[in-house]
């Protein structure tokens, strides 16, 4: 790597002065985030039928049961490829799910968490077991919005007795707060290593967005037929592959 692709070297006092200057902007960013969170809490909400059934390990259950006695529920809606081997499932949703594998602190605050997906339950159960996920998963196949519908969304709900309400949802980069890896990468010198980022002159050329979300058996990034969602390589029995095995678009 060229020495041009590194920050300039300065003494600690000079570095601290630059760091303190940036901290002013970071604090302003935090306060704006607080203001946005306050605005979210002031959104209206949509009532829907919480008795609609979803399918989990115990068979069909009413959606209201996902609250597990709490008044609030957050879900991530995981995209799904039907009749597809594990390596063909969504790399972005795997990245999201892998970064949130425990909800103890949410539960302590009175918020439940679950994953929803449109896959048929036997396929979903097999995938969840392979990945070692312990948070609740449910199939919402053919269930209308705001429980089912389009996947890839982080969605929040409120319960008032037997009544259920949609309070918030977001997708795309709005899901980034779940992914702690993003926050850490954004605090490194070379960031996410993606072409869209604003980098100093001489920095390594970035690759396409999300390039490291899939890798092959040798750890090389690839979105080709030999790749798996990167976290899958940590799972027992995850061997080399030669196809994604997809038969159509995700649901």
TrEMBL record:
Residues 224-251 are annotated as: Disordered. InterPro entries: DUF899_thioredox (IPR010296). It comes from the Bacteria. This is Putative dithiol-disulfide oxidoreductase (DUF899 family). It comes from Asanoa ferruginea.
